[in-house]
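Record type: monomer structure entry
Structure origin: computed from sequence
Chain ID: A
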Amino acid sequence: MWVYSSPVYDALRVERSGITGRGLFAGTAIAARAKIGEFEGELIPIAEARRRAAGKRIVAIVELEKRAIDASVTRRGFRYINHSCEPNTFTRLTQERAEFYALRRIRAGEELTVDYGESHHEGRLRCRCGAKRCRGWI
Protein backbone atom coordinates (compact mmCIF):
# COMPACT_ATOMS: atom_id res chain seq x y z
CA MET A 1 0.00 0.00 0.00
CA TRP A 2 1.23 3.51 -0.88
CA VAL A 3 -0.08 6.65 0.83
CA TYR A 4 -0.28 10.09 -0.78
CA SER A 5 -0.79 13.41 1.03
CA SER A 6 -2.62 16.46 -0.30
CA PRO A 7 -4.05 19.67 1.12
CA VAL A 8 -7.55 18.51 0.05
CA TYR A 9 -7.51 15.14 1.86
CA ASP A 10 -5.37 13.48 4.48
CA ALA A 11 -4.44 10.48 2.36
CA LEU A 12 -5.30 8.34 -0.62
CA ARG A 13 -4.57 4.63 -0.42
CA VAL A 14 -3.84 2.14 -3.16
CA GLU A 15 -5.45 -1.17 -2.23
CA ARG A 16 -6.95 -4.25 -3.80
CA SER A 17 -10.10 -3.27 -5.68
CA GLY A 18 -13.41 -5.07 -5.96
CA ILE A 19 -13.61 -3.74 -9.52
CA THR A 20 -10.26 -4.92 -10.86
CA GLY A 21 -6.66 -5.13 -9.69
CA ARG A 22 -5.68 -2.24 -7.46
CA GLY A 23 -7.80 0.81 -6.86
CA LEU A 24 -7.50 4.24 -5.30
CA PHE A 25 -9.35 4.77 -2.00
CA ALA A 26 -10.22 7.88 0.01
CA GLY A 27 -8.31 8.10 3.30
CA THR A 28 -10.84 10.60 4.68
CA ALA A 29 -14.19 11.98 3.60
CA ILE A 30 -13.96 14.27 0.55
CA ALA A 31 -16.44 17.10 0.03
CA ALA A 32 -18.57 17.26 -3.12
CA ARG A 33 -16.90 19.26 -5.93
CA ALA A 34 -13.53 19.32 -4.09
CA LYS A 35 -10.39 18.96 -6.18
CA ILE A 36 -8.83 15.67 -5.16
CA GLY A 37 -5.64 15.72 -7.18
CA GLU A 38 -4.01 15.37 -10.58
CA PHE A 39 -2.96 12.53 -12.85
CA GLU A 40 0.84 12.51 -12.80
CA GLY A 41 3.31 11.05 -15.25
CA GLU A 42 5.38 11.61 -18.35
CA LEU A 43 4.03 14.18 -20.84
CA ILE A 44 4.29 12.61 -24.32
CA PRO A 45 2.88 13.11 -27.84
CA ILE A 46 -0.51 11.48 -28.46
CA ALA A 47 0.94 9.25 -31.21
CA GLU A 48 3.48 7.87 -28.72
CA ALA A 49 0.73 7.36 -26.13
CA ARG A 50 -1.33 5.31 -28.59
CA ARG A 51 1.74 3.27 -29.55
CA ARG A 52 2.40 2.50 -25.87
CA ALA A 53 -1.25 1.59 -25.24
CA ALA A 54 -1.62 -0.73 -28.24
CA GLY A 55 -2.34 -4.28 -27.18
CA LYS A 56 -2.30 -3.60 -23.43
CA ARG A 57 -5.24 -4.54 -21.23
CA ILE A 58 -4.34 -2.05 -18.49
CA VAL A 59 -3.31 1.42 -19.59
CA ALA A 60 -2.42 4.36 -17.34
CA ILE A 61 -2.55 7.09 -19.99
CA VAL A 62 -4.80 10.15 -20.26
CA GLU A 63 -4.99 12.01 -23.57
CA LEU A 64 -5.20 15.79 -23.42
CA GLU A 65 -5.75 18.14 -26.38
CA LYS A 66 -2.31 17.85 -28.00
CA ARG A 67 -0.36 15.60 -25.65
CA ALA A 68 -0.91 12.74 -23.24
CA ILE A 69 0.16 11.87 -19.72
CA ASP A 70 1.61 8.39 -19.24
CA ALA A 71 1.46 7.37 -15.58
CA SER A 72 2.72 3.84 -16.13
CA VAL A 73 6.18 4.93 -14.99
CA THR A 74 4.97 6.24 -11.63
CA ARG A 75 3.60 4.60 -8.50
CA ARG A 76 1.47 7.63 -7.62
CA GLY A 77 -2.21 7.14 -6.96
CA PHE A 78 -4.36 8.33 -9.86
CA ARG A 79 -2.93 5.75 -12.23
CA TYR A 80 -4.97 3.30 -10.10
CA ILE A 81 -8.35 5.01 -10.45
CA ASN A 82 -10.79 2.46 -11.86
CA HIS A 83 -13.70 2.97 -14.25
CA SER A 84 -17.31 3.02 -13.13
CA CYS A 85 -20.45 3.67 -15.16
CA GLU A 86 -21.70 5.53 -12.03
CA PRO A 87 -18.48 7.27 -10.88
CA ASN A 88 -17.90 9.42 -7.80
CA THR A 89 -15.29 11.67 -9.47
CA PHE A 90 -14.92 13.52 -12.75
CA THR A 91 -11.89 14.67 -14.70
CA ARG A 92 -11.24 18.22 -15.85
CA LEU A 93 -8.79 18.23 -18.76
CA THR A 94 -6.60 21.18 -19.71
CA GLN A 95 -3.77 21.36 -22.24
CA GLU A 96 -1.30 20.23 -19.57
CA ARG A 97 -3.31 18.53 -16.79
CA ALA A 98 -5.94 15.96 -15.89
CA GLU A 99 -7.49 17.06 -12.58
CA PHE A 100 -9.87 14.93 -10.51
CA TYR A 101 -12.85 16.38 -8.60
CA ALA A 102 -15.49 14.77 -6.39
CA LEU A 103 -18.92 14.52 -8.04
CA ARG A 104 -20.51 14.05 -4.63
CA ARG A 105 -19.41 13.59 -1.05
CA ILE A 106 -17.07 10.60 -0.89
CA ARG A 107 -16.87 8.57 2.32
CA ALA A 108 -13.57 7.64 3.95
CA GLY A 109 -12.56 4.20 2.68
CA GLU A 110 -14.64 4.47 -0.52
CA GLU A 111 -12.96 3.59 -3.81
CA LEU A 112 -12.52 6.55 -6.15
CA THR A 113 -13.89 5.90 -9.64
CA VAL A 114 -14.22 7.83 -12.88
CA ASP A 115 -16.07 7.20 -16.14
CA TYR A 116 -13.28 6.54 -18.65
CA GLY A 117 -15.52 7.58 -21.55
CA GLU A 118 -13.85 6.75 -24.85
CA SER A 119 -10.85 4.51 -24.32
CA HIS A 120 -8.38 2.48 -26.34
CA HIS A 121 -10.56 -0.55 -25.55
CA GLU A 122 -13.17 0.79 -27.99
CA GLY A 123 -16.04 -1.00 -26.23
CA ARG A 124 -14.35 -4.43 -26.28
CA LEU A 125 -13.39 -4.76 -22.60
CA ARG A 126 -16.12 -6.07 -20.29
CA CYS A 127 -16.92 -3.59 -17.54
CA ARG A 128 -16.66 -4.88 -13.96
CA CYS A 129 -17.89 -1.79 -12.11
CA GLY A 130 -21.02 -3.45 -10.70
CA ALA A 131 -23.11 -0.28 -10.99
CA LYS A 132 -26.89 -0.63 -11.26
CA ARG A 133 -26.78 1.07 -14.67
CA CYS A 134 -23.56 -0.50 -15.91
CA ARG A 135 -23.16 -0.24 -19.70
CA GLY A 136 -21.43 -3.63 -19.76
CA TRP A 137 -18.37 -2.58 -21.78
CA ILE A 138 -15.54 -0.05 -21.66
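Annotation 1: Helices lie at 46-53.
Annotation 2: DSSP finds one helix and eleven strands in the chain.
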